[in-house]
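## retry 2 of 3
previous attempt timed out at serialization; input unchanged, resubmitting
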Amino acid sequence: MDDRIDFGILLGLAFRAFVDEMHADLAARGFDDLGRSYGYVFRVLGDGDRSLSELAAMLGMTLPGAGKIVDEMERRRYVERRPDRVDRRVKHIALSRRGRAALAAARAFHRDFEERLPDPSRLRRGLERLAGQTTGEPLPVYLRPL
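## retry succeeded, writing output
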């Protein structure tokens, strides 16, 4: 009988450990009020402002679901809404100064964490290959909140 943990469970446990350590690191840097889905939004908005419709589509979410997350992030000062220059009915969602600082801190944590792993470049190639095999397409730039 094989007493090893199932591979999928092992991946999930490793991801959970990564997320827990990242949240502890970010909390120590003053970002102790991050919601579960904020990282996905940070990643999308890190590439530029988006309308709520664009954000929802990129994250594979409903418009009300994305709106709820954005409202919460705005209350916590991670994002701000800006009017469109052409169509005043459209509001663009942008990272605030606090949001950009949180994203920079998270990216620094990602780099530091990866460098602490044994043979990080080999592990990264393996994970990229595994992720590509799952979809059969190029790796997505964004993930949707689970």
